[in-house]
Amino acid sequence: MSDEKKDIQPIASSPARSIQAGEVEYAKPADDAFEVFKTHTDGVQFRLVGWLRASVIFLKIIFATGVLSIPTAMYGLGAVGGALSVIGWGALNTYMAQVVGGPILREICGGLFIIAYVLCSGSGIVGLSVGFNALSEHSACTVWWAFLAFVLVVVCASVRKFEKIGWLSWAGFISVYVAVFIVVVGVTTRDRPAAAPQTGDFDFGYHAIAYPTFMVGMTASCTIFVSSAGTSAFLPVISEMKNPREYNKAVYVCMALVQSSYLTFALVVYKWCGKWVTDPSLGSAGTTLKKASYGVGLIGLMVSGCLYLHVAAKYCFVRILRNSQHLQKNTIIHWGTWLGCTIGLGCLAFILAEAIPIFSFLIALTGSVCFAPLAIMLPGWLWLHDHGDYKRGGPLKMMAYYAHWLLILIGAFTCVGGTYAVIKSIIGAYDSGLIGSAFSCADNSGTVH
């Protein structure tokens, strides 16, 4: 997120002084020269986010969509495979979240970044429309609920600063966490899953170890991978932090809570629902608790879509106005560009949400097409670029060097294999009638069989 060094002019630093109790250590002027938004400006001040608020924003970016889709993926991989996948992908994404830098392949990566978070915004719109349908008992066409979700997401995303979205992140995270907890408790009180036949024998579909087909396994793996892969969205937040050096602290707090919650919630829901878990999972405990959980979780689903759209729009906004005085000035061009980015990308998210209205498929496609290159291949390549001398070092350095080459191969396999599997799954869902035509009134949430 910083300019190349050759474009930077030296800035004299102020005399050093000690930080007094209660003060916040802001970036030094010399460091400020490398930042997107300047702290020393007479225009709009963006860099107001502390590490605690950053960690909550990170939590909200990562948590909502993952926790609603992982129980579905558990059926494809089994409890053991699903748990190992959550732990493995979570650890990898936490590690990769620390690797940033380099303008190489900027345009390709920028395009993937925008597509990724537009698709994520679409998943938020799908989740909201399903929630509105559940609460209203399908009193209106699903497309109209999706349009209402689109409007809410765009309005919230149009708030310019992460510092102002901070309180929404708190409300959104608590909202989704409580909603999921309601479902987790609810499924344990039922004799049989709510979506299963309520009389007679039925196939429960719980497996500690599953033997999925390539298509099912890759789709499930991509779904779990993407649940913690949105760490590239952390970069725009860093650019608005008071002290970017506190980034790692915010990441560790976020990922520790997210991964422990994912593992606990997903395993419990899958244990009690088997293959009858719904997609999104908030409908898994029956009609009454479905309404209760969606009623509580609507704020969180809206904030998720808002943050994803805000991240994508902020990237476009900065790219357009980066070298202009309008970037941090309250001008017509400033506001016109910002609102054009949020509304334009929001419209694209709405169209994609209606074209791929099954929540888990939209999530998995985002993981395979966008986050496999962004969250695995690119950070691995950047590490190799910075540590080329490791291939001639000692055994540990050589292991680290070739391990990062392995990451690039894993990312390539996930990208190609996952995209193929998800697209085949989407085609199969259209052929079987699970997905109706685009912009249809059918509610495409439901049970995984």
TrEMBL record:
It is a multi-pass membrane protein. Residues 93-423 form the Amino acid transporter transmembrane domain. GO terms for cellular component: membrane. The keyword Repressor does not apply. Keywords: Membrane, Transmembrane, Transmembrane helix. It is found in: Membrane. Pfam families: Aa_trans (PF01490). Belongs to the amino acid/polyamine transporter 2 family. This is Amino acid transporter transmembrane domain-containing protein.
